[in-house]
């Protein structure tokens, strides 16, 4: 590396981004250098874990749970400045410009805590996201940025190098049995580890998971590409939810990446279909009873206090 490059950080970032693009083109996945400071990482960890203290309900922020072994935290860009900074890191933007072209945006930012297990509950797959009935002549590119919030010594992200570019799908048993595991790379690493990968490649969360694993996944693709119907109905790639406190100093390019003004996937008055209506009605009724009991108890307590006050006089 020349002295001129060392004197110009932007030029150094361009060279590093070009190296990352070459790795993505050849292998489909690449580990990135450190993206945030220890202080920023600690702030991100604290904000994320504050959402893992309770299940999201009523007026209490928390996690969502749609499966037994993962606790999901949606819309992480609202939680701490570091989540926005990672999403818009110059190295990440440079690599994505080179690999995805000019029309990509950040379309999703969420994370989860994986619980310890020996079960392969998140088996080998390529991410299915676009409408494969409408796009058949090519495989649109999508890249995710995986960012660890905990040390990962087991249950790490695994990827079959060179498997990208295929039509993404969940791999049936006969395909899994013939995977070239000699080309598998496992991304063990400390908190702060970051990996960019083409989501069409075969990947999974490894097993066993011996300790809690916390990770964020940022999803980047061209929002003009039609989505599969399942994601449309779920409203998965809804316009990003953002926190105004974290948006100072954005460039025009940053605003485009975050989808400012883009209503491609906006659905007016969307209501997600309830998956457990009977249970939700039961819990709503139980909470209503609790509120009534609290109101009644408050009245009784107030009357008792007034009587005792008069008696004391």
CATH topology of the largest domain: Jelly Rolls
User: Into how many domains do the coordinates divide?
Assistant: 2
Percent helix range: 25-40%
Distance from N terminus to C terminus (CA atoms, Å) equals 88 Å
Label the structural class.
Answer: alpha+beta
| Average residue pLDDT | 92
Say what oligomer this is. Answer: single chain
What is the CATH architecture term of the largest domain? Sandwich
Q: Would you list the SSEs in sequence order as H and E?
A: HHEHEEHHEEEHEEEEHHH
The share of residues in extended strands comes to: 15-25%
Overall 3D geometry? globular
CATH class of the largest domain: Mainly Beta
What is the number of E strands? 10
**pLDDT below 50 for ≥5 consecutive residues: which ranges?**
1-7
Q: What is the number of helices?
A: 9
Q: State the CATH superfamily name of the largest domain.
A: q2cbj1_9rhob like domain
* Biggest beta sheet summary: 7 strands, antiparallel
Give me the secondary-structure topology:
Elements: H1 3-6, H2 9-27, E1 29-31, H3 38-50, E2 64-67, E3 70-73, H4 81-87, H5 90-100, E4 105-114, E5 143-148, E6 152-160, H6 173-176, E7 184-189, E8 194-198, E9 203-205, E10 213-221, H7 229-234, H8 252-257, H9 277-312
Antiparallel strand pairs: 1-8, 2-3, 3-4, 4-10, 5-8, 5-10, 6-7, 6-9
Description of the molecule:
By secondary structure, the protein is α+β, with helices and mostly antiparallel strands. It is 34% helix and 19% strand. The protein has nine helices and ten strands. A seven-stranded antiparallel β-sheet has the order 1-8-5-10-4-3-2. The radius of gyration is 24 Å and the shape is globular. The N terminus is likely disordered.
